[in-house]
């Protein structure tokens, strides 16, 4: 059963969304809000998996609300406006559903949510859609992850055997929740590294065991924002 909370400033929109959710198997609406401030006061204590947030609201919008929600709770955005899609994806978002909402589109969003919730509960492997179909990847085989240069929504994963797999439509925030935090760390906006591959760490750079041409080791820049976390994980 997926438990969800709804936030929308329009009461009619809430009623309609509740009816849609209640008509979807294994989905339960545990509470609904039309006030973002009240929602934020209560959300940490509510037992739920998904927050369905409207983006366009007076005072504080859905994007601002999402940034204040605990990472353990996944987000589905609803809006009549398409221009928020890129910004929404940078948050802990499962899906972005355009209004007027149709049941089959909402079902698709919940399917993605279910997949993500199941994936985050398994710390020894990732199960996700990739360039070769739905794939199970054991986390102990992963040594390096970077944002795809072809599509920034995708992530390239390098395995110990040198093979490369592309995770489709997955942001770093959700990906990091799937990985054992003691074994991986994000080092800048576009890269995650397995701690076991690091051989040298300077003030703003790491040298890894990963060979780029059979002779030279891969060197990566460490962003200022990520430096403290990396030092803590390395025991520095």
TrEMBL record:
UniProt entry keywords in alphabetical sequence: DNA-binding, Phosphoprotein
Residues of the Response regulatory domain: 3-114
One GO CC term on file: protein-DNA complex
Pfam family, one: Response_reg
Record carries keyword NADP: no
GO BP term, pick one: regulation of DNA-templated transcription
SUPFAM superfamilies, A to Z: CheY-like
Modified residues annotated as 4-aspartylphosphate in this record: 54
Annotated PROSITE patterns: RESPONSE_REGULATORY
Molecular function as annotated in GO: phosphorelay response regulator activity; transcription cis-regulatory region binding
Domain of life: Bacteria
PANTHER family: REGULATOR OF RPOS, TRANSCRIPTIONAL REGULATORY PROTEIN YPDB
The protein's name: Transcriptional regulatory protein NatR
Native source organism of the sequence: Chryseobacterium potabilaquae
């Amino acid at each position: 059963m997926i438990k969800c909370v709804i936030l929308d400033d329009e009461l009619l929109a809430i009623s309609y969304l509740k009816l849609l959710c209640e008509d979807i198997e294994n989905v339960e609406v545990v509470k609904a809000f039309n006030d973002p401030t009240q929602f934020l006061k209560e959300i940490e204590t509510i037992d739920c998996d998904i927050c369905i947030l409207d983006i366009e609201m007076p005072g504080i919008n859905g994007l601002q609300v999402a940034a204040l929600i605990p990472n353990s709770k996944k987000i589905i955005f609803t809006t009549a406006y398409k221009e928020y899609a890129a910004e929404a994806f940078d948050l802990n978002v499962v899906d972005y559903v355009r209004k007027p909402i149709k049941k089959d589109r909402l079902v698709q969003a919940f399917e993605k949510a279910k997949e993500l919730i199941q994936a985050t509960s398994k710390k020894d492997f990732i199960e996700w859609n990739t360039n070769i179909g739905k794939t199970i990847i054991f986390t102990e085989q992963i040594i390096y992850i970077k944002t795809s240069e072809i599509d920034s929504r995708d992530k390239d994963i390098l395995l110990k055997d040198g093979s490369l797999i592309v995770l489709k439509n997955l942001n770093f925030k959700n990906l990091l929740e799937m990985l054992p935090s003691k074994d991986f760390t994000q080092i800048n906006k576009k890269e995650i590294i397995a701690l076991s591959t690091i051989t040298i760490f300077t003030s703003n750079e790491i040298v890894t065991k990963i060979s780029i041409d059979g002779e030279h080791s891969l060197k990566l820049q460490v962003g200022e924002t990520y430096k403290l976390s990396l030092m803590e994980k390395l025991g520095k």
